[in-house]
Amino acid sequence: MSEIILGIDLGTTNSAVGVVDSGFPILLANEDGKRITPSAVWIGRDGTIEVGEKALRRRALEPERVITSIKRLMGRRADEVEEHFPVPVDAGNDCLPRVLGKSPEEISAEILCEMKRIAEWRMETRISKAVITVPAYFHDAQRAATKRAGELAGLEVVRIINEPTAAALAYGLDKLGDHSRVAVYDLGGGTFDLSILEMRDGVFQVLATHGDTRLGGDDLDALILRHIEEKAGIDETTDALRVRFMEEAERVKRALTDNDQAVFRLPFYDGTHSIEQLLTRAELETIAAPWIGRTLRHCRKALADAALKPEDLQAIVLVGGSTRIPAVRRAVAELFQREPDVSQHPDEAIALGATIQGGVMSGALRQMILLDVTPLSLGIETFGGLMNVLIPRNTTIPCKAGEMFTNAADGQAAMRVRVLQGEREMARDNWQLGNFDVAFSPAPKGQARMGVQFKIDENGILEVLARDVSTGRDTVVKLGNAAVNVDDEAVETMVSESVEHAFTDMAERVFTEARLKAEELLPAVEAVLAQGLASDDERGEIQAAAAAVRSALAGGAANPLKAAVQRLDTATEALAARLVEQAMDEALERTMGGNEVVC
Ligand code: ADP
Ligand code: MG
């Protein structure tokens, strides 16, 4: 088994970790059963440390000892930190910021340690390597600080990748092909950015990125809280109370993602007063409109920077927990004039992409590619309506297979290639993926040569090539996503039907093959008998065998026909050998004669 490489989204608000397990990228849940862990660190007076939900729970009692949003300080100098930070920031001797005596790297390392611990606990093994994501706008010092944090956590950071790139990987946008352009709209808890990526030679390049490191879901929580406070006539609160108010505002915000209304409720928040205020989704959308508007301005700037219009993009994806808000989705859809891809959990996509990157680097995902197989057999119809399999079911893709075919009739100048998928012996019982005609130089029966090749690339696209061997002329037809785009149920039905009909199908194939042989043999036998070379005994047996073949053909049963054809074959064997001998003698005589002339 290849060595595990973790994929970690070290987020401002939340972090997540994943691994490739048995060829599939998965995120790992913490002890609370959550795949997302708050990026919060509590440092007790005695140096004890708690991370995640456990740290957040300490906020009610010791808000000044719970550090959140440490990502904002990564790779910054103390004098660059002008923002309001939830806990006091000091400058160390090195002019780097310190929070509760620790550097941002050390605090981030605690979060990474927790991610590593969750993964080791879930996977029941030691893990020492990771891919970690950073925002596309992070400069070198910020990236280096993130790498150092990983090392402090006992992880070898095998790659730092951009968050939008990770998101694009998670959405499988790498499959869109070279030069495709995608936009990643990432609205998290404390930051917003829009990145436009272009795929070049299999690698995502950031064409433009725009955003605001102080614009996220927290701001909307604050706007909701202000609205509630105005309605309830509250102005002053203590720090500890503010934590509770903000938590309730966030809860109400999330509730309004799924419901039309929610109640902001804080009973006896200061011992005597209570708040109970109804908020509707419509109200929330009014409050949120300017906040969403700010993100859209950044989107327009990024498009302008990249000199692109929305229609130049192949896809837009949403990541970050705040993109669950319906009004955000609507606004993005309108600006980019298309429905955004929301097929992944927005707050998990980045960690999933990092995991995929880790899997590719460890080799674990090659196993997944190996698991990519043709769900059903692929072939073409041959003479007699039979299915001729070129690529059997469960063949690993990409793959290539070919076979030579010939003409079934004299002077035939074209051949119809019917591309089939399925497990049944007769062509008509399989699915037809397409058909096309190929012209070839007319030739007597059985003498034209037509090569047919099937090629399935890593995306499951089937390409059929037909070559007239005598002229070298190729006909190439692409048949779309034939290999992988079949739903599981249909595959199951096809396979179970093929099992169910196995005996009748096989009998029909045997009969058809024997019939084709009989139809070839009978006229040939007539012709030979007409030459009068057979002895009387031979003639009697051959005629009896031929009659048996004719009656078996009429009878329609496979095995009697096969036996009759076999008998006819045997009956003509000695005669056929004599014919060949005679033909060779004649040919030899001709050659000898030729030689004499030359001498
Ligand atoms: P980050 O990238 O900043 O670490 P996330 O992508 O996890 O964070 O986003 C966290 C933000 O998403 C928070 O502001 C949270 O309130 C918001 N959020 C999460 N779920 C929902 C939801 N269902 N509705 C609205 N906002 C949500
Ligand atoms: Mg994020």
Task: Describe the SSE topology.
Blueprint: E1 6-10, E2 14-21, E3 24-27, E4 37-38, E5 41-43, E6 49-51, H1 53-57, E7 66-67, E8 90-91, E9 97-98, H2 104-123, E10 129-134, H3 140-152, E11 156-162, H4 163-170, E12 181-187, E13 192-200, E14 203-212, H5 217-232, H6 239-258, E15 261-266, E16 275-280, H7 281-305, E17 315-319, H8 326-336, H9 349-362, H10 364-371, E18 378-382, E19 386-391, E20 399-405, E21 412-421, E22 431-443, E23 450-456, E24 462-468, E25 473-478, H11 488-500, H12 502-530, H13 536-555, H14 558-598
Parallel strand pairs: 1-10, 10-11, 12-17
Antiparallel strand pairs: 1-2, 2-3, 2-4, 5-6, 5-7, 8-9, 12-13, 13-14, 15-16, 18-19, 18-21, 20-23, 21-22, 23-24, 24-25
Helix pairs in contact: 2-3, 4-9, 5-6, 5-7, 7-8, 12-13, 12-14, 13-14
Bound molecules: adenosine-5'-diphosphate and magnesium ion.
Adenosine-5'-diphosphate binds at residues 11-14, 188-191, 216-218, 250, 253-254, 257, 320-322, 324-325, 347.
